[in-house]
From TrEMBL:
GO terms for cellular component: ATP-binding cassette (ABC) transporter complex, substrate-binding subunit-containing. This is ABC transporter ATP-binding protein. PROSITE patterns: ABC_TRANSPORTER_2 (PS50893). The lineage of its organism: Bacteria, Pseudomonadati, Pseudomonadota, Gammaproteobacteria, Oceanospirillales. InterPro entries: AAA+_ATPase (IPR003593), ABC_transporter-like_ATP-bd (IPR003439), ABC_transpr_FbpC (IPR015853), ABC_transpr_MalK/UgpC-like (IPR047641), Mo/tungstate-bd_C_term_dom (IPR008995), NA-bd_OB-fold (IPR012340), OB_MalK-like (IPR040582), P-loop_NTPase (IPR027417). One of its GO terms (molecular function) is ATP hydrolysis activity. Residues 4-241 form the ABC transporter domain. It comes from the Bacteria.
């Protein structure tokens, strides 16, 4: 197991990059602690696989260093780095039995046969592959093949880290949940450093203690699922995490806070002071649908808006509101009264966030 440090790392697939846009990974500094369960989350094309392949050594970064426990490993092959990697599609030997496939990484490392037996059976049990151990891999279903592929990544407990690149893509939906639980169980049992790549926030949150959210070749936030939800530090995090994502409204400065279309929004004093010192005019307020306060009657500090749509999702409702031509989503619990036609919304200060040039700013009081 190792601490993995990506030091002033950047990568471009073109030999002679001319601008930022030619970088698949824009300069970053990031540390994955030893023994952590991490998710690398982000939309397709944001650089997740590139980053994973740089960690494993399949790809050599154009700039910066990869350090394992403080030692530079840039020049080392994946085998020398002692990394296990599981890919989106199964990588197995069709002509071998399931047992021999699982045993392969161990036998390769000259592990003694009694230990091979023990480990293979242990992993087969966790992945529920006991019944097919003697079968040739080519006769397996797609799900089973991917489970074998995952098993090959999980069978060694002496690896520096295990990297998963969207490993459940080909797996049947009902099995996905189960396998994710199993991965978590394996992580807890063996205390391995695991980095799990996915574009699915639910998958990331159920697997990982901490999520690195990637956007445009950068990790824009590294935190617990809760931190990403409650305190998105970039508008992209607010938008990407949550269902639906955070509401954002472009605003202008006013004497006691900010305003849009003549509606004043007051801010914390600390934020207000901060706002006076910065020149940028790219200002947005953000609030999650879960935190928008909706009432049928007008209350202090509330804004009148029109109810344009109500979506009933069983245990809660998503209400779409029109506030001076801006669309706003609010999430209402089952027992909350749903306003018809007209509603009043207010933004509790603790959940109202301010973004300057797309980044969260916080007052001194927090
Ligand atoms: P993700 O895994 O998040 O979908 P990738 O790491 O695969 O993203 O890709 C990041 C960016 O790098 C994308 O713009 C993609 O088109 C580009 N890219 C990926 N692989 C290559 C490659 N072998 N050659 C050139 N460009 C690539
Ligand atoms: Mg990918």
């Amino acid at each position: 197991m190792a601490e993995i440090h990506l030091k002033t790392l950047a990568h471009s697939y073109s030999a002679n990059p001319q601008s930022d846009t030619e970088y698949a990974i824009r300069e970053m500094d990031h540390v994955w602690d030893q023994g952590g369960a991490y998710a690398l989350l982000g939309p397709s094309g944001c650089g997740k696989s590139t980053l994973l392949n740089i960690i494993s050594g399949l790809l050599s970064p154009s700039e910066g260093e990869v350090l394992f426990d403080g030692q530079r490993v840039n020049e080392l092959s994946p085998a020398e780095r002692n990394i296990a990697q599981v890919f989106q599609f199964p990588v197995i030997y069709d002509s071998m039995t399931v047992f021999d496939n699982l045993a392969f990484p161990l036998r390769n490392m000259k592990v003694r046969e009694s230990k091979v037996q023990k480990k293979v059976l242990e992993i087969a049990e966790i992945l529920e592959l006991q019944d097919v151990l003697k079968n040739k891999a080519k006769n397996l279903t797609a799900d089973e093949k991917q489970k074998v592929s995952m098993g090959r990544g999980l069978v060694r407990d002496d690896v520096s880290a295990i990297l998963f690149d969207e490993p459940l893509t080909v797996i049947d939906p009902h099995l996905k949940w189960k396998l994710r639980r199993k991965l978590k169980q394996i992580h807890e049992q063996f205390n391995l450093t695991m980095v799990y790549v996915t574009h699915d926030q639910l998958e990331a949150a159920t697997f990982a203690d901490k999520i690195a959210l990637m956007y445009g070749g950068q990790i824009v936030q590294f935190g617990t699922p809760r931190e990403l939800f409650e305190k998105p530090n970039h508008t992209f995090v607010g938008y990407f995490i949550g269902s639906p994502g955070m509401n954002f409204i472009e605003v202008k400065r006013s004497e006691s806070g900010v305003e849009f279309d003549g509606l004043k929004v007051s801010l914390d004093e600390g934020l207000q002071d901060f706002l006076e010192q910065i020149p940028s005019s790219n200002l947005k307020i953000g609030i999650r649908p879960e935190f928008v306060h909706v009432s049928v009657e007008s209350i202090t500090g509330s804004y009148e808006c029109a109810v344009t749509h109500v979506e009933d999702l069983g245990t809660y409702k998503i209400v779409t509101l029109d506030l001076k031509g801006r669309s706003l989503k609010a999430r209402l619990d089952e027992d909350q009264q749903v306003p018809e036609h007209k509603a009043y919304v207010s933004f509790p200060k603790q959940w109202l966030k301010l973004y300057v040039d797309e980044y969260l700013v916080e007052g001194d009081s927090e």
